[in-house]
Known about the structure:
This protein has a single domain, classed as Glutaredoxin (3-Layer(aba) Sandwich). It is 32% helix and 22% strand. By secondary structure, it is an alpha/beta fold. The protein has helices at residues 2-18, 80-96, 113-123, 167-178; strands at 20-21, 50-52, 58-60, 69-74, 101-107, 128-131, 143-144, 146-151, 156-162. The longest helix has 17 residues, at 2-18.
Amino acid sequence: MKKLLILILCISLAVVLFSCSKPENNDPPVNNTEGDNTGNDNTEGPVVFMTYDRKGNPYDQSIFAESKLTLINFWEPWCPPCVGEMPDLEKIYEQYKDKGLNIIGVYSSFDMEGDVDDVLDEAGTTYLILTYREAFDRFQTGYVPTSVFINDKGEVVGETIIGSKSYDEWVNIIEGLLNH
């Protein structure tokens, strides 16, 4: 009986360590939808959004037309699995950007900009980092990291990925989608 209790505790701890859920009190600020005037509920069809990078440059869904496939990775600086997979995502970005892949990171912890800077610097992240907007709500699972793939027409392709992946797992998924 004691061994069973220890096993259950170990499994519970592993689940907590390997997935992060978004705390209820860390929702994006109300003013976070500023500039997101799509007039679209954005739950089906092409992805429509308007947001900014960390320097204030505007971006919208037209970015998808620049690549065959775009991976949007929703992450937060307080999430160890999110931060842990960023170096692999950077490596994949460098290897596949000339083969039609774009990677975009999206975060909503606006009160943690210093932590975001530290994470991006440590991971050596060069792919585009955007701020969360209401238009991205359609992809929310309650967990981070969560990743989705968008084709050059702005349509969701493949399955939503909940949780982090290893380099090899990402490569298999991406190659399958790029060669589809």
